[in-house]
Design goal:
42% of the residues lie in helices and 16% in strands. The protein has a 6-stranded parallel sheet with strand order 1-2-3-4-5-6, with helices on one face. Strand 1, helix 1 and strand 2 form a beta-alpha-beta unit. Helix 3 runs parallel beside helix 4. Bound molecules: the ligand O=C(O)c1ccccc1NCC(=O)[C@H](O)[C@H](O)COP(=O)(O)O. The site of the ligand O=C(O)c1ccccc1NCC(=O)[C@H](O)[C@H](O)COP(=O)(O)O has 11 residues, from helix 6. Pathway: Amino-acid biosynthesis; L-tryptophan biosynthesis; L-tryptophan from chorismate: step 4/5. Keywords: Amino-acid biosynthesis, Aromatic amino acid biosynthesis, Decarboxylase, Lyase, Tryptophan biosynthesis. It comes from Aegilops tauschii subsp. strangulata.
């Protein structure tokens, strides 16, 4: 199986998207907290033209509402880590899904639960809130065997 590659960066300029694509990225992170709506819309168009997926990251209701007003959004990441305080709270995902899950579902948008996921219970918690995928950093990079760590995080053996 070929693994899709996400460029996880603070993207503020278009050249970064072309650069990521030239290095083999399939998807790129666009952070609503650092991008005006017009930039997000333009960058989303560039991504589509390049055959890339944009993972649009939000932290709160205000950012989520801005993103939900943009046409063509297919993938939203709800970050449980505040960019201002770095405090992690996984209930952020649940809270935003409770508030906007209906419209997200109606629009056919997939949601990624991001940050602060260390155990199968954490993953199950955000899954039960309605996310279809997770973005995990710290708990995997600290492990010697990432494949085993991923399987452990999902609470079952995924690799055969
Ligand atoms: O990515 C950055 O440059 C960065 C800067 C400042 C604070 C955090 C930053 N990144 C955090 C991550 O990329 C996390 O690894 C990712 O959100 C996943 O979260 P976790 O599983 O808790 O590591």
């Amino acid at each position: 199986m070929q693994c899709p590659l996400l460029c996880k960066e603070f993207v503020i300029d278009i050249w970064q998207i072309y650069y990521a694509r030239s290095k083999g990225a399939d998807a790129i992170l666009l952070i609503a907290a650092v991008l005006p709506d017009l930039d997000m819309k333009y960058m989303l168009r560039i991504c589509k033209n390049l055959g890339m997926t944009a993972l649009i990251e939000v932290h709160d209701e205000k950012e989520l509402d801005r993103v939900l007003r943009i046409d063509g959004v297919e993938l939203i990441g709800i970050n449980n880590r505040s960019l201002e305080t770095f405090v992690v709270d996984t209930s952020n995902t649940r809270m935003l899904m409770e508030k906007r899950g209906d419209i997200i579902k109606e629009k056919g948008i997939l949601v990624v639960g991001e940050s602060g996921l260390f155990t199968p219970d954490d993953v199950a918690y955000v899954h039960s809130a309605g996310v279809s995928a997770v973005l995990v950093g710290e708990s995997l990079i600290k492990e010697e065997d990432p494949g085993r760590a991923i399987a452990g995080l999902f609470g079952k053996e995924l690799l055969s």
